[in-house]
Amino acid sequence: MRPFELTLAEAAAAVGRGELSPVELTRSVLERIGAVDQELRAYVSVVGEEALRSAARAADEIATGRHRGPLHGIPYGLKDLVDVAGMPTTASSRVRADHVAEEDSTVVTRLTGAGAVLLGKTHTHEFAYGLTTPQTRNAWDRDRVAGGSSGGSAVAVAAGAATFALGTDTGGSIRVPAALNGIVGFKPTYGLVPTHGVTSLSWSLDHVGPLTRTVRDAALVLSALTGHEAQGPTGPDTTRTHGEDLGGLRIGVPDDYYFDHVDPEVETAVRRAIARMADLGAELVGVQTPMARYVQATQWGLMVPEATAYHERTLRSVPELYAPDVRVLLEAGELVSAGDYLRAQRARALMRQAWMRVFGRVDVIAAPTVPMTAAPAGQNAVEWADGTTESVSDAYVRLSAPANITGVPSLTLPVGRDHAGLPIGMQLMARPMGDATVLRVGQAYESAHGRLGAPAVVAA
């Protein structure tokens, strides 16, 4: 196995044993970027020389007994919404073409402290305001969308062009591209990972989290992001392997909403995965999705005016620099009244209360991450079996938005493929600060049933 193909945990173990140098690992990943990124376009920019210097420093520190932990010497990609001092933060937009960050974001400070090696900045849908990342191609099929808005980060990890990456998630922007590219994506509890120094889309919905090849890897990154190298965010060590036993855990299976307007192949794969978790000892409990009819209105009622407020000055001074799809959404936000925004906040409060009642009965809710696999690039809408038509973006955000509105932790992991060989993702959610629980369940499933095979580009 080539170094760029290693999971984070595998690479960290090899580095720790002295079998793999951080320089060798970083060089392998940089060569991989050179081989595939012209076609995939996951990266906005790559800082290869600086990455090799950082890797050499890590190697020297480890050799002299100053090993900082599992991320030491591990190369990663960073969504281009996240500040690194002295580097541009373009948000994949002409509006930010000349913007250079003055200081590191909190998450970069923590990753640097853990010894991680920055490879470069990855593409996002402009200002994270979209679910496709149109400039980036899916790692499994170049003619399909990458998903968004953290599409660059997801494709980089899936293609071996980063050992792990960071993304942001406002309505599914970590989990959607992770699911469409066959990797793991984790949106932590709201507020658990600091967003200081991260370009905002919607302050009350924004999250920062990892995209990785395994659930185990996501747990390792989360510990560094939360500043808890030894102890996880909720007390128990989120990096500890729990094995395959899910005895005593109650897994909620929605009777509605999450399985409405879902591709049959997606439903079959996710229900099969849920049944496999029951085989590991979990008790399956049917649940209703609280206030499902209000999800879309609440998500948009919060996000649209908050995004417009953030962009108020540049929207008035340089509107022509925004892509048409993003400009339309930002201009629409100017039409949302204060009363409508407050009603959305009230709906969010009621939705949180209702979800907490559900989590009084179950430990985890399991459902599809997205209702369909990666759509062909340029496809604007999907027609369901009952004749209902839905935009591609609305379809992708529909099942991920509730976790943003309520702030609960949500993990996606691959559980199969459709007839075209495209990945299918399952979403696991728990009560706020139940991050360790979803990681435990995800690791148990992954341990018992293995990882999804790599896309063809990785084997090339």
Automatic annotation (TrEMBL):
Pfam families for this protein: Amidase (PF01425)
Domain of life: Bacteria
PROSITE patterns attached to this UniProt entry: AMIDASES
Residues annotated as domain Amidase: 24-439
Originating species: Streptomyces blastmyceticus
Protein name as it appears in the record: Amidase
